[in-house]
Fold:
Amino acid sequence: MLLYEGKAKSVFSTKDPSIVRIRFNDKTTAFNGLKKENFKNKGMTNCVISTLLMGLIEHAGIETHLIQMVGDTEQLCHSVDIIPVEVVIRNIAAGSICRRLGLVKGYKFNRPIVELFYKSDDLNDPLINDQHAIDFGWATLEQLDMMRRKSLKINDVLQAFWLKKGITLVDFKLEFGVVPSGKMLLADEVTPDGSRLWDVETGDNFDKDVFRYGNGELSEAYDKLLRRITELPQNL
Ligand code: UDP
Structure:
């Protein structure tokens, strides 16, 4: 049974109420759903990439909602209550921080910048601080601290992974959820839809900016990214 239909994924129940089936679809939206298009194989590519990256993250000791990939475009995952606070980690300035703070795109931060956004389509995911999250009951201080710590560790894991593939991890967004016992898991997805990925040599985008700003074909960029991930290392 369909439980929830999101912009890029649908969530289905299973016989076990603690487990859900998440289907990645080919839809792409940007600017809070204002721009929409379908791209062939995008669901499959994102499902494979998210499964691979969540596996790496799990291996680094951070628990995720992922149980296993099933078929081409689906994952079995632990059912969680999503904390409505998105964590964005930024290594290099791009996107909204440039507009907000007048930074030049490409400026390298001395250390990763952590930002929190309230997950609300109606409000266009506004930037928030700890007090908003705590006083409005979206998360506790302990949860926010845990989310920041986990996100920075995930940044180390992902930066190292992408660099080996010749790709710079510019920024990315994470969502966390809690299971009934109160344990926090990384949830949602870790994909080029929610990250900025630039070729180290050419600066080309392998992410949703290709769609946002219409400078190429998204399917091609995601295919290239998948090939880059799975190709044989140069020394073998
Ligand atoms: N991001 C996302 N979902 C959102 C907002 C941002 O996945 O609702 C990702 C985005 O793809 C980028 C990072 O978070 O990798 C930072 O996004 P930013 O705040 O720069 O906003 P944008 O320029 O995407 O509007």
About this structure: Residues 88, 95-97, 125, 171-173, 194-196, 208 surround uridine-5'-diphosphate (CB under 6 Å). DSSP finds six helices and 14 strands in the chain. The first strand starts at residue 2 and ends at 5. The first helix runs from residue 42 to 59.
